[in-house]
Structure formats: structure tokens, C-alpha cells
Description:
By secondary structure, the chain is mainly α. The chain has helices spanning 2-13, 17-26, 28-38, 45-62, 71-86, 116-134, 138-149, 154-161, 165-187.
Amino acid sequence: xxxxxxxxxxxxxxxxxxxxxxxxxxxxxxxxxxxxxxxxxxxxxxxxxxxxxxxxxxxxxxxxxxxxxxxxxxxxxxxxxxxxxxxxxxxxxxxxxxxxxxxxxxxxxxxxxxxxxxxxxxxxxxxxxxxxxxxxxxxxxxxxxxxxxxxxxxxxxxxxxxxxxxxxxxxxxxxxxxxxxxxxxxxx
Length: 188
């Protein structure tokens, strides 16, 4: 069933109305199951059913294929949290809660695109680089920032500061040499 749902999702995401309708019909049992399992309120069943159908359509629009998460698992979790939150029923939810028979755990739906350690090191490197750039003489700092961060060409920089092309190249070269020394001092 999961493969059929995935195929219908792809077609629906491309704008195929028939596939959207068929997807809602195919997920009807899941919607009913989610209502009975997670909703603890007094609202009318037909309203809840309609909300579930709308959630399926919202999932088609908002699902991110790049996360490497099954579409069906995504829909199950969205329905679960929609019905839990709309009933006012609060329950502690574990990231290890099952999201379906073979869909895995809730934690599997959380994108793990960022490696925390490498992101920390990257941020720390940026801070060190910024500090070293700040310690450069003013003209060298301006040229480095314009060339590497503002993406100006040497010609544009020479016009900006009314300096010759060669002067900009020499200043940039000196700035890079000084920057390298500052970086070495920082990491020694």
C-alpha cells in the first residue's frame, strides 16, 4: 500500500486532481483510525473527517521529498498531532513512538541534515576569521571584505577607492599574508 500511496502522492504533487482524490480515498481508513485513536473530544465525526482530508491535502503541498522520510509516515504523524492538539488532550509523546506498522519511529521523521559538531566547528571558524579580519589595517580589511564578501572585482574596488589596479592587487596580497599570520597566531 505504501508504494501506491507514494505514487499517488507524486502525481498529486504535480497537480493531478484525480490522484489527489484517490489519495484521500485511499487514506480514508487511516483518517478514521487516527480520529478514534487520538481524538478525545465531543466534536462531530464528519467535521473531524473533513479536517483529516484537508490535512492530507496540506501534506501533499508541504511534504519535503529531500528529507528521506516516507510520505505515509509524514501523513500519519501530521494526523496524529492534529487530532491530539484539537482535542485538548495532552499526552507526553516520545520520539521513539511508532508512526505506523513499518514506518519506523517518530524520531525518523526529524531531518538530520545538520551535523551539530561540524556546524559548531564551522561557526567557530567564522568567528575566528571575522576576528582576524577585524585586526587587519583598515584598507586591507576593506579590500578583503569587498573582494571576498561583497564579490566586487579588482577593477570595481580600484574605482571605489580611486586606486590603481596594481595597488589593489598588492594590498589584497598583503592582506592575505597578514590574515594568514593572524590565523596562525590564533591557532597556536
